[in-house]
């Protein structure tokens, strides 16, 4: 179908309603570069539009989620190249354009841009032994795909500053303890399975309600509490215009399972 034929990613449907995107650039530990993002963005946009899909899982291999931006692709870039092409802008489409929930299942290395991409997902799951970090300082640069902002919001300023200024790695176990990851699993298989199970659960709910829930939670990252609560209230009121609100509440009252119309 139209979701095949990619070179650097594989797409599958492990469970009803779940789109699984797996990075497939094993020889470079899934290092991230423009051709991969063209494919990823294309696939995510198609999954976002696909009525059968309710949530997406993004993963790599057991060895690497993604070992960061492709250093060999970047090393000769000039300021004009970077500024002229708005380097990295292409990477953030997942965070700006995709309305369905994305869960990152992080095993192995998630460094630099790999860690940033994992943080762009709506929910991060990790295996305990995963290796995360923002090592850009060691290359004479800084995080460029949102790491300084998303890591800081998640773990607080002092810890984020320490991680970004030292370039020290941290484990999946730590990521979960600090609240950066929602759950940590013993093994990579359990991590992927856990992400797929959660995606399947999300996909079983009203697409309209899920979309609205993601939208309002994300607003909390940009708005102050007062404006955020006002925004939530407007969207909440809007839910009473949906069929699924009537369906969900009628089913509760009748002690039945709701049959969502996603409308
Ligand atoms: N870019 C390009 N190639 C990479 C890469 C990267 N980020 N990470 C790994 N590779 C390549 C290696 O060059 C190697 O290729 P060759 O076989 O052709 O030499 C192959 O993947 C396997 O890697 P290693 O032999 O290094 O594997 P290892 O198990 O010994 O080490 C590692 C694994 C610790 C992850 C190590 O590969 C490493 O340190 N990678 C770089 C990590 C990094 O600095 N990432 C941040 C990049 S900067 C960034 O992301 C900017 C941003 O904010 C957007």
TrEMBL record:
Signal sequence interval, chain numbering: none
One GO molecular-function entry: enoyl-CoA hydratase activity
PANTHER family to which the protein is assigned, alphabetical: ENOYL-COA HYDRATASE, MITOCHONDRIAL, ENOYL-COA HYDRATASE-RELATED
Protein name: Probable enoyl-CoA hydratase, mitochondrial
InterPro entries in alphabetical order: ClpP/crotonase-like_dom_sf, Enoyl-CoA_hyd/isom_CS, Enoyl-CoA_hydra/iso, Enoyl-CoA_hydra_C
Protein family per UniProt: Belongs to the enoyl-CoA hydratase/isomerase family.
EC number: 4.2.1.17
Keywords annotated in UniProt: Fatty acid metabolism, Lipid metabolism, Lyase, Virulence
Biological process according to GO: fatty acid beta-oxidation
UniProt xrefs under PROSITE patterns: ENOYL_COA_HYDRATASE (PS00166)
Keyword Lyase carried by entry: yes
Cellular compartments per GO CC: mitochondrion
